[in-house]
Structure formats: C-alpha cells, structure tokens
From TrEMBL:
<feature type="domain" description="INO80 complex subunit F">
    <location>
        <begin position="10"/>
        <end position="56"/>
    </location>
</feature>
<feature type="region of interest" description="Disordered">
    <location>
        <begin position="56"/>
        <end position="130"/>
    </location>
</feature>
<feature type="compositionally biased region" description="Polar residues">
    <location>
        <begin position="111"/>
        <end position="130"/>
    </location>
</feature>
<keyword id="KW-0539">Nucleus</keyword>
<dbReference type="InterPro" id="IPR056513">
    <property type="entry name" value="INO80F"/>
</dbReference>
<dbReference type="GO" id="GO:0043065">
    <property type="term" value="P:positive regulation of apoptotic process"/>
</dbReference>
<dbReference type="Pfam" id="PF24245">
    <property type="entry name" value="INO80F"/>
</dbReference>
<dbReference type="GO" id="GO:0031011">
    <property type="term" value="C:Ino80 complex"/>
</dbReference>
<dbReference type="InterPro" id="IPR033555">
    <property type="entry name" value="TFPT"/>
</dbReference>
<dbReference type="GO" id="GO:0003677">
    <property type="term" value="F:DNA binding"/>
</dbReference>
<protein>
    <recommendedName>
        <fullName>INO80 complex subunit F domain-containing protein</fullName>
    </recommendedName>
</protein>
<dbReference type="GO" id="GO:0097190">
    <property type="term" value="P:apoptotic signaling pathway"/>
</dbReference>
Amino acid sequence: MLLNKKVHIYQQLVERLFDKCQRIQADNERCVMRVNAIKKTLRRRNFDVEMLKRRLDKHGDNWRSVPMVAPHPKGKTEQKRRGPKPKNKQAPDGGTAPANPTRKPRKQRAKQPQPNLNSTMQQQPHSGIC
C-alpha cells in the first residue's frame, strides 16, 4: 500500500509539471506570434516608405533637401513643463517674502450636534393605540 501511495503522489507531480509546461508553451507561442506580427508590420512600413521615396523621386519633388525635424512626443507641438513652484515669491509690498512665512491655521468643521433620541421619544405624546 505504501508503494501505491508513492506512485500516486509521483503521478500527481508529473501531471502538475506537464500542465505547467503546457501553459508555458502556450505563453511562448503567443509571444512568438506577437513578435512575428511586429516583424510583418515593420516590413510593410519599410516597403511603404521605400515606395513613397520612389514616387517622390519620380515626380521630381525636392524632398531630400528639406531638413528633417523629429516629431514632438505625443503629437504635441509644444510641451508644457511643470516644475517646482518658485520658493521666493514677492510680498504684496514689493519686498521679498520672509523665509518661514507664518501660515494661518486651518479651519475645522464644526461638529453637528447629534439629536438625543431618548429625549425626543419622551417628549412625543402617545397616540393611545397599543
């Protein structure tokens, strides 16, 4: 019986390992398909660029003498730069602000008073229906 138990455990481990290998194989195949799709897209792009160059040369366009400018990232013509705010702001009187300006304390919300349910229950008259 001890031998059968060991064989059973061994078979379970082999099945788990086989399933894991199949999952890895499927993931590898997906990666290979993605790489092949990207290669195909690049081949098409290169073909289109070469065809466009040939057509422009055929029409006598002077495109080769025009300086190439790299496009701005994300299609923006002018990137907005957001840096830290300047530390030394001017005071309203025209001078410079002190190094450690005193800040106003933050206002705290006033707590709403909780209605006392016991007192309201005692104050209500009974309708007499019980």
